[in-house]
## 1
Amino acid sequence: MFSEIIHNITENSDLVIHNLLSLFQYDPTAPMLFSSGLFWILFLIFIPVYALLKKSRAKMIVFVVLFSLFFYYKSSGLFFLMLMATSFVDWIVSKMIIKVESKNAKRALMWFSIILSLSILAYFKYANFFLWNWNQMVKGNFQPLDIILPVGISFYTFQSISYVVDVYKEKIQPTRTWLEYLFFLSFFPALVAGPIVRADYFLPQVEKNEEATKDEIYAGFWLIIVGVVKKALIADYISQFNDLIFNDPELYTGVQTLMGVLGYTMQIYCDFSGYSDMAIGIALIMGFKLGINFDSPYQSKNLTEFWRRWHISLSSWLRDYVYIPLGGNRKGTVMTYVNNFLTMLIGGLWHGAAWKFIFWGAMHGIGLAVHKACKPILKKIPDNFLFTFIFWAMTFIYVSLLWVFFRAASFEDSVLIIKNIFVDFYWNQIPQFFEARKIWCIMMIALFIFHFVPQRWADLCQQAFVKSPWILKLLIFLGVVQLVIEFMSEEVAPFIYFQF
């Protein structure tokens, strides 16, 4: 009897140890997400240790780097080694740029780093795309390479490039140690899906190593709650219907298709801005400011305004490291339009290795050029509610239709989806749709209303949360968790921008 008890305890202990160890191993079917329970358990363990080490800058950097690398390992496996290698090469190059005196040598080192970074990105992200197109031209038998795309490679590659370019332009000095640069490049809140953090903005914060105030900690907590609502509650729920439309577009009516397109328009905003809110909130609790990444983009009345409000860290990066180096608006009207077009074309290709992404970027480039060309006429139009609404509607419709190419499985599916809306649309089906998808419709209506709430109202809500008693904060948090559990799908949906 006693031996059986010992045997059972040993077996159960082995099982517990095995399960615990599996939590610390990379699982490609379940990458670590901000919306997963495991991350928050680890973060709750991380944050008190971080607080104890915060006063010692060196110890804090080592601890955060180790946690960030583990986070990336849980998100993308052994590719964390490639991240370390990339950071080491770029740091060495940045130190060499400062030491050499020849301008040509500095430029050569800069381009060496840029080409190396882009070559790695091109292999993982675009190799199959280019091989497929080459085989289409030569009528070959294309067999795709078995390439796994490292999570977040586009984001940290852009950060790496901007760092080396800024060192070359003497906007910043290289970090004293490789570990400091690795801290910047691997900082886990922004590592896998942005925001794209700029060295000239972030590294001075690392140098100062200021502790977050109590108000900043609560503000960060508020942003995390808002991000969870956007991503885990709204985006994940409305995506269930949107996916039906985009996966089998030929099976649905024009009304259903239109609702799916509007649903995805709001889904991608909630998904990506929700992740950004969580990332910014986590960083703020740690004492670091990442800056705003979304500013109610669907309030925009033209495409220029939209790209100042949407994915601001990417828009500003493309402006400073692509558009301006191409010549910006310094080489005449025609070249300004061309530079806008090329910048957005590159932005489209950055998002994905497919012609539909290139088309999406090209159409945004054309839209920006048309808006700039029409500015003299637009200035003569009265600034009243009617015209403001018309321009907003035109912008929203244009952006929403282009999201179809972003989401659909193929260019052909994109055309079919848009055709369904205009050919097979009957107004009398709208009440039937509302009856069948009541919760989905209520969520969408609420989302549209809250998206158009003035920013000062949102700021007041955040301030009220920060000043509220801790018991109210806890109740709000528990209420959000309960809503997420109530509406959650069977599996935690990955963030849309993980694929980029």
## 2
Amino acid sequence: MGKFIINRCGIMALTILCLTFVVFFLTNLHPNLEKLAKTQANMRMTDDQVVTWLESRGYLQPLFIRYGEWLGVVPSFLQTSEDGRQRGRCVRPGVPSEQTSRYCGVLQGNFGFSTVFKEEVSDIVAKRLALTGWLMFYVMIVMVPTALVVGVLAGMREGSKTDRSLSTFSIATTATPEYVSGVIFIAIFASSAVGLKWFKGTATSAMDEITFANFTLPVMTMALYGMGYIARMTRASMAEVMTAQYIRTARLKGVSFHGIVLKHALRNALIAPFTVIMLQFPWLLTGVVIVETLFNYKGFGWALVQAASNNDIELLLGCSIVAVVVVLLTQLISDIGYVYLNPRIRVN
């Protein structure tokens, strides 16, 4: 197991390098850099002025050199003007030039400076990721147990009325996008159109204090969309397990139906849904864009939208590396969990 984890970590590091380089290349195309120069300096800049602005800040260096600077394995660009002022990635206000480090990339914990929010990218990502973390936590608490119960009940007796009813419900939830269910929830439970003002139609106040009124609708919007997929996978796995030979043997031995489901079928039926559940974490992290925008909850998804729409290159790169790491970590945890859930699986 230890060798397997080490090998997977090596593959993860290589994958992170490849994916972040692709994102770095796309975000640093010349049209994006030109837009960055004009938004930071003057929208009426000429082409020569744009080139001068980009050159004075190191944006016209070779792509691999700049990617190495961003990683922190290549000395960062540093330029001293005629008046003695320094300009570069590692320059910080109030820090003497002799104390300025030449290596200040991701490996040194420096994710850059946001051109839109005027803050360190690491501070922005940490703050917004914490807000989204609370949303993901409550969504998983609601979504996973509900989906497993629905899937198990539907798969216990395949073809019954309960199975057909719950399967229809699961398909309907999966087929309903978040922006549709969210608007419906707001119209029914938070507006004066129907009169059921049980919850708030915005989750802005939840950034300071989470309450039942301001956090229920965004949680239910995301949980409703995700639980259908998990429930359908659980139902299919449960139905397959219930027809296995060892289940028939247990029935012939006189084991009760309740005991067969809990002691024999449930553990094997949860192997496939376990992978689906683990894949919900990266989906929740990047899929909260619609929900956070709809309910004005300024979390990770909201920051990602702001970075993309405002051409905030450093923040967009910071968000991308966090998303990549979360996806790879959940896949690693999923592979390790497979071994413990199914004794027949062995890692050579």
## 3
Amino acid sequence: MSSPTFSRGGSEHIRRLIAEAIQNGSRTATVTGCWEIESAVRIPSDLTLILDGCHLKMADGVYENLFVNEHHGTDLGKTPAGTDRNIVIRGRNGAILDGGTYNGLSERNQCQNGLPPIWKNNLILFTNVDGLEISGLSCYHQRWWALNFIYCANGRLCDLDFRASDIGIDENGNAYHGLKHERYGEVLVKNADGIDLRQGCHDFVIENITGFTEDDSIALTGLNGSLEQTFAVAGLPADISNVTIRNVSTAAFCSNVRLLNQGGTKLHHILIDGVTDTSADSPCLDRGIYAVRVGDTHLYGARHATADETYDIIIRNVFSRASGAAVALAGDMRGLVLENITAADGTQTIEDRRGA
């Protein structure tokens, strides 16, 4: 199959479509065709963006998101008064969001020598949005995490497929496909998650997630780092809570689903129902490390979480062939329920390091 031809000016084209949808009162814009995206497109409240069979690819050499909400990164957007509401991005007929050619921005070199922070490499970055849907999309070659949400609520993320880069660069500078943990230093695009819910996210449904991610397919991460401090919303709770994750069938280099909170951020009332490790059939990697991982013995925040901060987590219907374990537990927690956890190919069923 030949590569599509991409038209330049995709950002301005989509902005015009959004402006027309607001002007005519429909508040629905439909994008078709193959377009290069040179700068982030801001999506306002009460707008539905239909991506109909289109392929949107980040332009070479840019350090930009593809979509952000209207008040993202503004002073108003860091207050409850600046909350954006009811944003829908709905894919149809094989719509694709594509990171394109990797731009070299990484966690190690961010904010150095004029480079921006790493979160400029998210395909979608929503901050302080109440009411959102992202569905029916394939995300190719994300340059870091594909979809990132901070202080967002009442969200639905469904029918999403990820095709992260599986390229390694060997010691002679030759590129190859198929990642192996013992050669992690050669991985070109590191920490290429699929979906990340960060501090302040609550009341989400995430379901029907497929594909390959270089790191975690879905991560619920309650930390208070520079990302969270940059986009924190004054007066809103920092908890990650009331999240349902269903029907995840992915090959993940690290974990299919990852839960982590430290430094005082609470993570609670989480349901994970249906996680299948598909790495046996994936040419992108040998096998992941965990199917579901809760907590960590490594310190990422000011301190580890307590049982009053990590609680009421249900994990059921998990199948894994990971190199580590089907389910890994670390740190302190209460109200944990594990049901129907299945391990294959010599995988450990439960790795329990709570209290370590």
